[in-house]
Amino acid sequence: MSEVTEQMRRHSAAHLMARAIQNIFDDVQVDIGPATDEGFYYDFDLPHRLSPDDFPKIEAEIARLIALDEPFVRKVVSREECAKMLEGQHYKLDRLSDIPEGEDISTYTVGDYAEMCRGPHVEHSKQIGVVKLTRLAGSYYRGDEKNKMLQRVYGVVARDEAELKAMMERIEEAKRRDHRRLGVELDLFHLDPEDPGQIFWHPKGWSVYVTLQDYMRRKIVADGYQEVNTPALMPRSLWEKSGHWDHYKANMFITESEKRIFAVKPMNCPGALEIFKSRMRSYKDLPLRLAEFGHCARNEPSGTLHGIMRVRGFVQDDAHIICTQDQIGEEVAKFCRLLKDVYKDFGFDKNLLVKLSTMPEDHVGDEATWQRAEAALAEACKACGMDYVIQPGEGAFYGPKLEFKITDALAREWQCGTIQLDYQLPSAERLNAEYVGPDGQKHHPVMLHRAVLGSLERFIGILIEHYAGAFPLWLAPEQVRVLPVSDKALAYAEKTAEALRAIGMRVGIDSSAEKLGAKIRAATMEKLPYQIVVGPRDEANGTLSVRSRAEGDLGAMTLDAFIERVKAEKYVL
RNA sequence: GCCAGGUUAGCACAAUGGUAGUGCAACGGUUUUGUAAACCGUAGGUUGGGGGUUCGACUCCCUUACCUGGCUCCA
Fold first, then answer.
1. Catalytic-residue membership of A117
2. Please, what is the average pLDDT of chain A?
3. Do residue A193 and residue A297 come from a single domain?
4. For A261, which of A124, A236, A342, A472 could close a Cys bridge (C-beta 3.0–4.6 Å)?
5. Closest by alpha carbon to A396, among A357, A428, A429?
């Protein structure tokens, strides 16, 4: 028999949990319970409202079932036999009807408990190990919010108590990296419960923000973009023409002035097209790459908000490329090169997940155009050596897209970069953007919506967790702090700080009355890249005593030597 | 928005129906300090908001806002 995989153990644990819950509670309807990357879950519908207080009882029952060490027995059955077995389990029966005619229907039986399941499973229940339930959640049947919400129980599986403990410690470590926690500890930003989803950036957090933004600005200017800025508040008439009023109104913040309705922009694209339309455009102007760090507001449902990663007010490193149909391929490839170049600077180029979303059922435009567009996206990925997975039918109704995803400290995926093809917005039905072609006729251009970092807010959230708050030198809000050993060294400390500020470094001085040890501890807790200790001895020798976050005490060196060091480390990227 | 669980001082947490505490941070004083926490003192709260039960509520019930974990959605 084949080896027992982690997936098999998790999936088998899910079966035993379903059995345990049915043993304990009455009138349990079971849905499905797959293994996940982390553990497993199972969805139930039962009159009893499950709570974490129920976990010990359920875990004990699962442990009892595991200890019985019963075999998991697979059997191929007829549709009728399976339906008979599932009598009264209407979610399961509904799932049974999904299985195409002619396909094998298998069941797994363990002890007195049988379930329709594709498998595979462990051979004996003891192979599962230790099961711990971790959390409880609601989940719509078949993932559709129109359906009933079921109760989902999540759990993890470990070989033994020691491995379980190690798993729990990993979760604790991830929590320590959580950007919401570090954001407060490092005094980067705060969120006000009275103003949900809006970020108050503190001096240090804003330093990271503008440093990142300036970096991105240099990158895009070098790549042929021009930066623009468009109004935050735009009139209803514009949103009606763009289609947002019909399709996006629920997510827009709407306001009124002198009987006219305005909306805070949820996207920058109409603004970019207004600029394009402000004068007659020639095919010689294309591609036109208009970048905008525009502040957008989206009224996201309260349940979706998450720290600074999912908010209601944010800025994307947004740009709109207005081009001809023929230019799409080259523009997408150019974008992918830029994205890869940028991600490399953060170490995100390696485990990057690229998703290509193709034509949905509900779409505009003919299929041939869609196919060409999808091919252009796929081609661009290949040209840059990026693997991608296809998400069939997940594209926007106006065009296919590429999404670039990064994983946070708690293993959640976040979409950062994206490039979306849009045939709709520039069309006559929408904002009616036109250029004069070589034939002297007017044509509608194609629009590419794209962002490399996604929203700056989300990207910074990911960076905080990625670096565990220890920003690389170029991004650190305070790159160096000078620590005078006492007031007597204060003048020399100030002179040193001035010299470093003169080369554009962000420098602080700890002039508090604390002892040196306490100053070092404080700077260390704040994760500063460099600390420079100065005292009478340094002043006499004309040196600095340097401490690096990565390497500890580096001993005495001259100011010039330190400057050489930070230049080599690229204190500006 | 939906399901579940939370909300106690700036932060991290305690107090299971009977006088709201501890640590760090803050503030004041003393100490002038050489590589991860000097010492002493002070102040800080209508226990998220509102309502109810009770002689008495941080504690029990209802309601509301927000947060957390998922689901749906999404940068």
1. no
2. 92
3. yes
4. A236
5. A357
Determine the Cα–Cα distance for residues A153 and A8; give it in Å rounded to an integer. 18
Q: Which nucleotide is nearest to A296 (CA to C1')?
A: B75
Residue A298 among the catalytic residues: yes
Query: Per the structure, how many domains does chain A have?
Result: 3
pLDDT attached to residue A536: 95
- The residue among A162, A104, A97, A154 whose CA lies nearest residue A129 is A162
Q: Verify that A491 and A554 share a domain, yes or no.
A: yes
What per-residue confidence (pLDDT) applies to A45? 94
How much is the average pLDDT of A102-119? 86
Which SS3 state, helix, strand or coil, does residue A460 take? helix
| CA-to-CA separations, A331 to A58, A337, A381, A421, in angstroms, rounded | 56, 10, 12, 11
* Per-residue pLDDT tens over the stretch A67-101: 998 998 898 888 888 888 888 898 999 998 888 88
Give the Cα separation of A367 and A344 in Å (integer): 36
Q: Grade residue A209 by pLDDT with cuts at 50, 70 and 90.
A: very high
The pairing of beta strand A295-297 with beta strand A288-292: unpaired
Question: What range does the domain containing A60 cover?
Answer: 6-173
**Mean pLDDT within A335-347:** 93
Q: How far is the CA of A308 from the C1' of B5 (A)?
A: 22
Cβ partners under 8 Å of residue A376, min gap 6: A328, A329, A332, A421
A473: nearest Cα among A518, A512, A503: A503
pLDDT value for A498:
97
A68-to-A31, A65, A123 alpha-carbon distances in Å:
25, 5, 13
Q: How far is CA A135 from the centre of its chain?
A: 21
Q: Does the annotation mark A269 as catalytic? A: yes
Nucleotide nearest to A410 (CA to C1'): B69
Q: What is the ipTM of this complex?
A: 0.93
CATH number for A19: 3.30.980.10
Question: Which one of the listed residues A11, A15, A312, A320 is annotated catalytic?
Answer: A320
pLDDT given for residue A348 in this prediction: 86
The tens digit of pLDDT for each residue in A211-233 reads: 999 999 999 999 999 999 999 99
Q: CA(A183)–C1'(B21) in Å?
A: 28
Whether residue A149 sits in one domain with residue A206: no
Spatial contact of A51 and A136, defined as CB atoms under 8 Å apart: yes
Same domain, A249 and A390: yes
Radius of gyration of chain A (CA): 29
Domain identity same for A218 and A297: yes
Catalytic residue among A82, A117, A269, A323: A269
**Range list of H helices, A116-268:** 161-177, 179-185, 203-222, 236-242, 244-247
Within 8 A by CB and 6+ apart from A366, the residues are: none
Q: For A390-442, what is each residue's pLDDT tens digit?
A: 998 888 888 899 999 887 766 777 889 999 999 889 999 999 999 999 999 99
- CA closest to B35 C1', residue: A517
Please report whether residue A115 resides in a domain.
Answer: yes
Packed helices A55-67 and A6-24: angle between N→C axes, nearest 10 degrees: 120
CATH of the domain at A448: 3.30.930.10
